[in-house]
Write a structure and sequence with these properties.
By secondary structure, the protein is of the alpha/beta class. Among the domains are: 189 residues, no CATH class; 56 residues; 147 residues, 3-Layer(aba) Sandwich (Rossmann fold); 78 residues, no CATH class; 240 residues. The protein is built from 37 helices and 19 strands. The strands form 7 sheets. Strands 15-16-17-13-18-19 form a 6-stranded mixed β-sheet, with helices on both faces. GO terms for molecular function: ABC-type transporter activity; ATP binding; ATP hydrolysis activity.
Amino acid sequence: MVFDENVQTKRQKYKNALLTNFLLCIISTNHIATAQQTGNSGSAQLLTQVLYSSFSNFTSLFDPGVTKELGFCIEDVDAEWNAAFNFTDNTDFLTACVRQTKGDVIKRLCTAAEVKFYSQLLTQGAGRGNLKPNKNCNLVSWASGCEPGWACSVGKDMQVDLKNSKEMPPRILDCQPCCEGFFCPRGLTCMIPCPLGAYCPLSKLNNDTGACDPYRYQPPPGQSNHSCGGADVWGDFVSTTELFCSAGFYCPTTTEKIPCTKGHYCRAGSTSQSSCYKLAICESQTANQNITAYGIMFFGAITLILLIIYNCSGQVLSSREKKQAKSRERAAKSARETVQAREKWKSAKEIARKHATGLQSQLSRTFSRKKFVSQQDPHKAPSHARSRSEAALPPLPLGMSHAKAKKQTNLTKMVQELEENPDSHDGFNIDIGDKNMKTPEQVGDKNMKKPKAKQLHTKSQIFKYAYGQIEKEKALQEQNKNLTFSGVISMASEIEIRTRPPIEVCFKDLTLTLKGKNKHLLRCVSGKLSPGRVSAVMGPSGAGKTTFLSALTGKAAGCTTTGVILINGKPDPMQSYKKIIGFVPQDDIVHGNLTVEENLWFSARCRLAADLPKPEKVLVVERVIESLGLQPVRDSLVGTVEKRGISGGQRKRVNVGLEMVMEPSLLILDEPTSGLDSSSSQLLLRALRREALEGVNICMVVHQPSYTLFRMFDDLILLAKGGLTVYHGPVKTVEEYFAGIGITVPDRVNPPDHFIDILEGIVKLPNTAVNYKDLPLRWMLHNGYPVPPDMLDSSGSRASSVGENSADGASPATATSDQSFTGDLWSEVKSNVEQKKDRMRYNFLAWKDLSNRRTPGVLFQYKYFLGRVGKQRLREARMQAVDFLILLLAGICLGTLAEVSDETFGTMGYLYTVIAVPLLTKISALRSFSLDKLHYWRESACGMSSLAYFMAKDTIDHISTIIKPAVYLSMFYFFNNPRSSILDNYIVLLCVVYCVTGIAYALAIYFNPGQAQLLSVLLPVVLTLVARQDSSSIMGKIGDYCYTKWAMEAFIIANAKRYSGVWLITRCGALKQKGYALDHWYPSLISLLLLGVISRCVAFVLLVTFQKK
């Protein structure tokens, strides 16, 4: 990269302080005077040692202020001095200089004042150009030593104080060419030693160009005795390239230049040749080794690892599934052994009871004359009465009578009748629990009191007892072989039944008004949802069915709720019971890259009680799988848009099963039968009815069900447009109610379709019937509910307003519409703001838990989420492989295009890296949260830990964070081949990837996928441009806080540390011009890591705060 004039000027400004301090190495007058007194004869070696010692301990001459000024480019002063001026290995050039000057070399060295003057020349750009007059070189006095490459002496009788920084000594005598290994600036008459890595021979006149090769100056015209001298200037690499040891050569001393041999490489400014790697290609005079072979090997190794992961991921998952299957078998075996032990105990009790009965009969016959029929063995019957029936029964195990088997057969028939005739509400005719328990139809809905927990417990016992006996019958026939999991559940829980806490929801005058618009979404809705019953919510489009469910669950954001909602007779918020409330959304929000069983098992582990044993959880999941008919597809992937999985009906059942496995007390479903055929709908509804028999309160929104499905519901809530109730009561009496107000269902017409068509206004009612808009009013009057006055007024004036539409009213309506546009817009804005406020309030409010269920804590949920996300990543191995392949291609392209430039320390390649790698990393990191927003919203609403979810995602993404820098550098480093080590580059790039991944999380959570992708592309480019602005400008100050600035600084510092010796001025000038410092490497890395942590915290707050319904 070629620097412009401004950059060059800024770089020159900092050469003054640099040279002033580093070239004070020559100040040590005490040793010099001693050496000069010895004379010239036989003292060359002694004077050489004195000359070297005069600047070998130069660090003592640095005052603390100057050392502090150079701290940005010098970390260890001694180490930098040794790298630049440690000539202990070879001092031949010093000896040669002593001999050339005949021992007068000390008087030709520059003093502190002359070094400062030279620094000012470089600062003002006059190192090679215009001269600034000084004491020795001006318009009046111009000695030969003033020319570049020449120097003079102060004379034999005059002593030189090299520490004097205020006054130049008069130095115009005995002018000679500058010694080899030294440089003599133009406008000064003294010498300065060249640093290691420089090549400073005597120049030769080029007759063609008239210049002194290899330097750029020309001898003064008209002076035949003035020959070409030595080097004339030491500066940065751009302006004094000829002073640096050429690439492909190495310079052990400043007067010796040796070509690199084969198998070695020599970069510019090298003092020794470096050995090439074994597989690298290095011809003679090679400036850099070709290590592409190692890049190809690294690429092959990473590709092999990715292929292994991709091909073995399926085996890993299958092995895990086999392990889980064995776990299920162990759970089933444990439950089976428990059942067998209970059966043996029952058999023993039966035998003991029989012996006790016989003993009692004996005693009765002995001590009493009366014989009671009640003392006879009830299990014995006349042989002729039971011979035929017993012949048809299978052999029974010990302790089980044929009467009991006959009882099981009756129970089987009863359950079959229940499934074949779901309308029946008579229940089972078994004398268990409360014998006086009546159905709501027997006492009427209005007088029905809240069911007691004891009654619900009895219902649950009836259901489990019946199904348990069925499964026992099957199991005993097979002698406890091939027992189904649902049978194990029923048999294992016969004695100790886990009852679910009942939830009865009563609501009165429930009204929802949209904030900012005063628009009613629901109005005057009253009724109740009872445990053990299946309620259907129906109505035309726009009637507020889903809004009604949101109001019950307390999720109606942006609305003012009036009325009363009682949970078990108490005004508790519904959120206090969310651990035992299941909500099935209308959309099938199921993880497509998990199997059916994995989806259900994850929900069960996170939402069932933490103290529930694992075998019990396994059995719960198996019961749900069997009840929903998902056994054939339990190991099949649900499927995504790109990859087809199970059918739509099965997916819908999995969506319902996610809530059933947590054994809810209240189950709310939003159109679970939409998109299902008749058989699938019936299968789903039968499974829900079985849940209701266990005391579960089920409420679901349906849209025009078939007559068969309609008769399977217990209660119906029929809503009209505007959220008004038209009917709320048993399904069996709905036709009777509408017939009482003059609305009859025609023959061969589905009643729910007919009612909804009436509410839509499609079906015209007879002239004698009421208007369909008055049906809500009729229902309120029928039940004695209070009626709002505006409803009475609108009903009374409806007849007079029919057909009136004069032209006089058209204009005011139009004017009102025009005038209210601004008001409507303001109302819309206020409504949106209120919705966001309510959602934030809902997310941050802490509700008292009244569910009496302790679910797994954050750590356990983190473990479950970690397993799920890891499994999903393994199934997305192909997508991960594509991401790595793109990084490899980017590394090849950028490493080839951006060749390392010594004068800029590889700035261009690192600039491309800081743009490309964050861009590619952000786009791939967006998938972590963009695609799972709906799943998270559903799971967090159910009480799952948001922190566990976020931490699990981030933990799994750490694997990609570690691998991606290595993948990119495997190509970029070996094609670009900078001086910094691959470890330094990896550490910096690792911090960059960690930082931008957190930023991508925040973008993915807050913005839509399209907006997040656009910002991920623009952000690295814009921030890089801002970070490259001048630090003195406003944009430059902003750039100081950009991660691109920290990344570029860390990359360039890691590379600049490898440049020493002759590169010292170049390094200091470049770092100062960019505002970098060598001691900023660790702070830059820490800043990147802190920004990554902060961005993750922001992303988590956004995740919890900005949730949608």
